[in-house]
Write a structure and sequence with these properties.
InterPro entries: NAD(P)-bd_dom (IPR016040), NAD(P)-bd_dom_sf (IPR036291), Polyketide_Oxido-like (IPR051606)
Largest sheet: 8 strands, mixed
GO molecular function: biliverdin reductase [NAD(P)H] activity; riboflavin reductase (NADPH) activity
CATH architecture: 3-Layer(aba) Sandwich
Number of strands: 10
Helix content: 25-40%
Distance between the termini: 28 Å
Number of domains: 1
Protein name: NADH-flavin reductase
CATH superfamily: NAD(P)-binding Rossmann-like Domain
Mean pLDDT: 93
Length: 210
């Protein structure tokens, strides 16, 4: 498959790029600073791009089989990258006729009946207050993606850990995963790649966790 990847220099994006290239996919990674990409591969191409500019994105999306976004707010300043990139990406995809979109969000922003009492009543409300700007950006991103009409999947991992790939994780589609508090970046990236390769779950969210 020919893939366009945004957020490739973050921990989750790098893990996805490594696994996708190793699986034989061609990955065009859109980055602000190529020097931050710490690995190379014959299937990996780095390109500078403004992820908030649909016209610029269209040139890197046209002809691809899928677009993957591992973007997330990092550092100081307003948390707006998710909503701005989602608006530009979905517009660029509509212009170019590319349908498949996989984006990363966060399990912590969603509270549901499948959460345990401690998680539902204490842990997540506290996390949502601390990360309210970040989660507001992700919520706006998700809304744009869901309204796009594209063949989308939203991946919502919980707390991400720097752990090697295990392949031993659970998933829940369209709901929270009870007891799913953590997952390694490599395993979360594996879940993302499976969503791309299998084309499912379609127009649904999925939470991977241990």
């Amino acid at each position: 498959m020919n893939l366009t990847l945004m957020g490739a220099t973050g921990g989750l994006g790098r893990a996805f790029a490594r696994q996708a290239c190793a699986a034989g996919h061609n990955v065009t990674a859109l980055v602000r600073d190529p020097a931050r990409m710490d690995f190379s591969h014959e299937n990996l191409r780095l390109a500078r791009a403004d992820v908030a500019d649909p016209g610029e994105l269209a040139g890197f999306i046209e002809g691809r089989d899928a677009v993957v976004s591992a973007l997330g707010h990092r550092g100081k300043g307003p948390a707006t990258v998710g909503r701005r990139a989602a608006a530009a990406t979905t517009e660029a995809m509509k212009r170019t006729g590319v349908e498949r979109l996989v984006v990363v969000s966060a399990a912590g922003m969603v509270t549901g009946a499948d959460d345990g009492p401690l998680t539902r009543l204490v842990a997540k409300p506290l996390l949502q207050r601390i990360l309210r700007e970040h989660f507001a950006d992700l919520a706006a991103m998700e809304e744009t993606v869901r309204a796009s009409g594209l063949a989308w999947t939203i991946v919502r991992p919980p707390q991400l850990l720097d752990k090697p790939y295990t392949g031993r994780y659970r998933t829940a589609v369209g709901r929270n995963l009870r007891g799913g508090m953590r997952i390694g970046r490599a395993d979360a990236a594996h879940c993302m790649l499976e969503c791309v390769e299998k084309g499912e779950p379609l127009r649904a969210s999925v939470q991977p966790a241990y």
